[in-house]
Specification:
The protein is an alpha/beta fold. The chain has five domains: 63 residues, no CATH class; 102 residues; 263 residues, no CATH class; 46 residues; 259 residues, Ribonuclease Z/Hydroxyacylglutathione hydrolase-like (Metallo-beta-lactamase, Chain A, 4-Layer Sandwich), CATH 3.60.15.10. It is built from 26 helices and 26 strands. The strands form five sheets. It has an eight-stranded mixed sheet with strand order 17-16-14-12-11-10-25-26. β2 and β3 form a beta hairpin. α2 runs antiparallel to α3, α15 runs antiparallel to α16 and α23 packs parallel to α24. The longest helix is centred in the middle third of the chain and has 30 residues. The relative contact order is 0.06.
């Protein structure tokens, strides 16, 4: 079976996905794969039967995993007996730590808001392991996705067998008894102490990089630097990978041999060391993958007369072993990227990469191979790929491999042994890391190189994989007729296929995005003939003590609106309509105008703009984005769709909500009223000016507050549908019951983001339908 384990890994993958995702597509893919193996690889009946057995085995493994993927803890439980299983994370005044509830043997996440700076300092020095603690708290379900393509935290935790978050009101270490330490806990404790040691003995730039490369922990990284690594597509270098593990194992093996130990002893020692190293470095998918592969290779060396293992066999067996132990990991982005990139490099090593004898060209080819292998998974999880990553890899892979990795290990061990490090050495690494971080942040701003077609559907994922397979086949086949022509054609198709599909789509949409307690509405026209964004949401900021501040506080524009738009492949906003100056409507604007191509900003023609509006105008000027002040009477058209601004009057000087941009749109075959936070006085002016106004869809003013949507206004416009954007369990009590009753009396259908998530009206020409994201 040497050389054929890859086909068993594919059968195992299809089996698990058939059970955990969709049965029919992956069952048909398995049948198609068997046909190809029979037709072109001449597999025997026994071999095909073995592959079917593998498919069925993993299908039942997936079914079993899915059947037990549920909580047995009652929602009414308030007292818990916990044993902590992971390092705690302290971010500002928030402590998060994973634990196992001993009575139910179920994993759970603990959250605790730290009340004082002194307690925070104490918690940073505490060891959470080797304790059994009793805590009281309230069980809460993790947040679920409320917008299309949004990160679903509940599903993410469920795939890690965690279903509840405990909100505790007092220090979770207050009522604890010591436990007898286990070897696993001792290793985890060493890791936690090692990370804290780095943080307290090195400058943060060195400590954060050392923690990532030595212990597999990225929590010390500056969020902006980490974001730059992600945007340029080289964040994989911050994860402990096969290259890191191989270099470390080779170094230990070499030192052992130099000290006179036998090869057999060193192999046995490394087989013992590998599992410890995997735990010590955080047991991420990339570490487990590389650890399993090297473990299998060492086994074959140990049994060299009985077993021979090719590299693609090693990764295939590692994949199968990983799925047996944790079938749900198949949905993990790190798992997918680690195995996909490693596999394409292994398969290319003896066929494609051997054609490049010079180091620079081989490195460029390897970087391109890795980027192509990662492409479908990067697009699915992050909606974009940075093409500049191909160049960045060529600079940063040698930097990490030959300078950072050995150098930071050296610094760490010198500090451990002597209690100090030479100042010259520390300054050298600090200077190199600072320059490299500045360079990567500079490269991350090259948005021209960002490929953002949106999240691919299953059909497009399969199409990408087929096109990539064809590209690799042609790249490898030296004698194929018109090889370069086909390669160029497939490369162009790879880039334009999904973008072209987006452009060809005859459907338009109006989506009220769930931004919590705020407003943001997308209008996207068919065939990409225009995109408008009405408001951007925003997060209210209050002055806090320094120690309470989070490393990267939640920001609606960056964390909700931009991913939502990129998930749809939208990179250009033709009109950004900012209805008024309240933070919950325009606070996310800075992320929008810096991440996307905004052609024009519309603001209300008011006498006294808010400080946030003035800041937006300054930033827009830097980015050469024209800002247009609009008032009642302004209008424009887009194909058969028309927009009429009915408020505010020019040079409005009253209360800010009353100065909101309010406009009527004839859009998708129906009439809409978008009024920001327009108050009842503003509504009265509009119906006096337009006494025969009737509206099909009303965007309820001020999140359903009783200061808007007056009885006279509702009775005159007689909306068929009302859209209310309000935060779940918001402290203002929006939408107000009185407003809901007014709308119900006119038989208006009400859609609410706090209950139904994003609300989308999808239309084709002059007809459309509403789709709430949550049922």
């Amino acid at each position: 079976m040497n050389g054929k384990y890859l086909y068993f890994a594919i059968a195992a993958l299809f089996g698990v996905l058939s059970a955990l995702n969709k049965f029919l597509p992956f069952f048909l893919l398995q049948v198609f794969a068997l046909y190809l193996l029979y037709k072109y690889k001449r597999f025997s009946a026994l071999q095909l039967t073995s592959l079917n057995v593998c498919f069925l085995l993993f299908f039942f493994i997936g079914l079993h995993s899915n059947s037990i993927n549920k909580s047995i803890i009652s929602a009414a439980t308030t007292t818990f007996s916990l044993q902590f299983t992971q390092d705690p994370k302290i971010d500002g005044d928030l402590l998060q730590v994973q634990a196992v509830e001993q009575r139910y043997n179920e994993s759970i996440l603990i959250r605790y808001n730290i009340p004082s700076e002194q307690e925070k300092m104490n918690l940073k020095t505490e060891i959470f392991y080797q304790r059994l603690c009793t805590v009281s708290g309230t069980l809460e379900k993790p947040a679920t996705a409320k917008n299309p393509n949004a990160f679903n935290y509940r599903t993410y935790l469920a795939r890690k067998n965690m279903y509840w978050i405990i909100e505790v009101q007092e220090n979770p270490l207050k009522h604890c008894t010591p436990l007898k330490p286990s070897p696993l806990v001792i290793i985890k404790q060493l890791r936690y102490k090692g990370i804290n040691y780095l943080e307290s003995h090195f400058p943060m730039e060195i400590a954060s990089l050392s923690a990532a490369l030595i212990f597999g922990d990225r929590n010390l990284f500056d969020p902006d630097v980490l974001s730059a690594y992600q945007k340029t597509g080289i964040v994989h270098l911050l994860a402990i990978s096969g290259l890191h593990v191989s270099l470390l194992i080779a170094m230990v093996f070499y030192l052992g041999i130099r000290f006179g130990l036998t090869r057999q002893f060193m192999i046995n020692f490394l087989l013992f060391l590998l599992p410890i190293y995997v735990i010590l470095t955080g047991s991420s998918p990339s570490v487990i993958r590389s650890g399993l592969m090297i473990f299998l290779v060492l086994i074959t060396v140990k049994w060299r007369t009985r077993l021979k293992l090719f590299p693609h066999d090693a990764i295939s067996l590692a994949f199968i072993a990983y799925l047996i132990g944790s079938p749900m990991v198949v949905f993990d982005a790190g798992f997918q990227l680690s195995f996909a990139v490693s596999l394409v490099i292994i398969l290319s090593a003896n066929s494609i990469l051997t054609d490049y004898s010079r180091n620079v060209t081989r490195m460029l080819a390897t970087s391109l191979v890795a980027q192509l292998g990662a492409l479908p998974f990067l697009l699915y999880h992050y909606f974009e790929v940075s093409l500049i990553g191909i160049i960045a890899n060529m600079v940063y892979i040698p930097l990490f491999s030959f300078l950072y990795l050995p150098g930071l290990y050296l610094l760490f061990f010198i500090q451990l042994i002597f209690g100090t490090t030479p100042l010259l050495l520390t300054k050298f690494f600090l200077a190199i890391i600072t320059v490299a971080n500045q360079l990567i942040e500079y490269l991350a701003d090259f948005t021209f190189f960002h490929f953002i077609p949106g999240r691919p559907s299953l059909i497009f994922l399969i199409a990408y994989i087929l096109m990539l397979s064809a590209i690799f086949y042609l790249w490898e086949s030296k004698m194929y007729p018109d090889r370069m022509v086909y390669l160029i054609f497939l490369s162009i198709m790879l880039i334009i296929s999904q973008k072209s599909w987006n452009w060809l789509s005859p459907y338009g949409e109006v989506t009220m995005i769930d931004v919590g307690q705020g407003d943001s509405i997308l209008i996207h026209f068919p065939h990409s003939k225009g995109t408008y964004l009405i408001d951007t949401g925003g997060t209210m900021r209050f002055a806090e003590e320094k120690w309470r501040e989070r490393a990267e506080a939640f920001e609606v524009g960056r964390d909700v609106v931009v991913p939502f738009l990129k998930g749809k492949g939208i990179t250009q906003i033709d009109k950004l309509i900012l209805t008024h100056g309240d933070m919950d409507h325009i606070g996310g604007t800075f992320s929008i105008i810096n991440e996307l191509n905004v052609k024009q900003i519309l603001m209300p023609a008011v006498v006294e703009p808010s400080s946030t509006e003035l800041d937006i105008i300054k930033e827009a000027k830097k980015l050469n984005i024209p800002v247009v002040r609009v008032s009642a009477g302004d209008q424009w058209e887009n194909e058969e769709n028309r927009f009429y601004i009915v408020s505010p009057e020019k040079n409005y000087s009253g209360e800010r909500n009353g100065g909101s941009i309010a406009f009527i749109a004839q859009l998708g075959g129906i009439s809409w009223f978008f009024g920001g936070d327009l108050d009842q006085a503003g509504e009265e002016k509009i119906i006096q000016q337009y006494p025969h106004l009737h509206i099909d869809v009303l965007k309820a003013g001020h999140h359903g507050s009783k200061t808007s949507s007056s009885i006279s206004f509702i009775n005159q416009i007689k909306p068929k549908v009302a859209l209310i954007s309000a935060g779940e369990n918001n402290r203002f009590g929006h939408p107000h019951q009185e407003v809901l009753e007014r709308l119900e009396k006119t038989n208006t259908i009400i859609f609410r983001t706090d209950q139904q998530g994003a609300i989308t009206y999808k239309f084709y020409h002059q007809k459309g339908t509403f789709f709430p994201y949550l049922p």
